[in-house]
Amino acid sequence: MNPSAPALAASARLAEIHHLYHLQSHLIDGGRAAEWAATFTADGSFTSPTYPAPVTGTAALTEFAEQFAAGCAAEDVVRRHVVSNVALTGDDGAGTLRVEAYLQIVATPRGGTPHTERFTTLTDRVVHDGDGWRVAARVVRRDGTPANTRG
């Protein structure tokens, strides 16, 4: 990663990536599963230690987001995805970026106090498909776990 100030083109890409991540958070937190899944490529993958297996492809990602919403409803809790410290850490020059970010999951039980359920690092491969940026592969790592494991 080059710590110098990004060039104008890199700044524009970073703004677009920020928008993608913010949109993803609002969509999954709002129960808009199909729209959330559409922020990934058709064969996009999501790997997280919180869930038993990687999720790949639009249908599976939609089902995953539907299950997230159903779990929140069943537990009577509002969960918010809070993405921060987004950094472009790689650019192949041909429309594929490596992006790293922090993600907190904040949960608020009905009538309760908000609390951080988990703090994670996202490492994404993001591609431009002509219409916009999509996540091709996401790997989530929870803080407090070894770097070479998922969980």
Tell me the Rg in angstroms.
Answer: 16 Å
Can you summarize the main beta sheet? 6 strands, mixed
Mean of residue pLDDT?
Answer: 91
General shape = globular
> How would you write the strand order of the largest sheet?
2-1-6-5-4-3
The helix/strand order is HHEEHEEEE
Main structural class: alpha+beta
What is the number of helices? Answer: 3
Proportion of residues in helical segments: 25-40%
What is the number of E strands? 6
Distance between the termini: 25 Å
Low-confidence stretches: none
Strand content: 35-45%
Explained architecture:
With 151 residues, the protein is an alpha+beta fold. The protein has three helices and six strands. It has helices at 8-29, 33-37, 58-75, and strands at 40-47, 55-56, 77-91, 96-109, 115-128, 133-142. Strands 2-1-6-5-4-3 form a six-stranded mixed beta sheet, with helices on one face. The model has no long low-confidence stretch (mean pLDDT 91).
List keywords for this structure.
six-stranded mixed β-sheet, alpha+beta, 151 residues
Lay out the secondary structure.
Elements: H1 8-29, H2 33-37, E1 40-47, E2 55-56, H3 58-75, E3 77-91, E4 96-109, E5 115-128, E6 133-142
Parallel strand pairs: 1-6
Antiparallel strand pairs: 1-2, 3-4, 4-5, 5-6
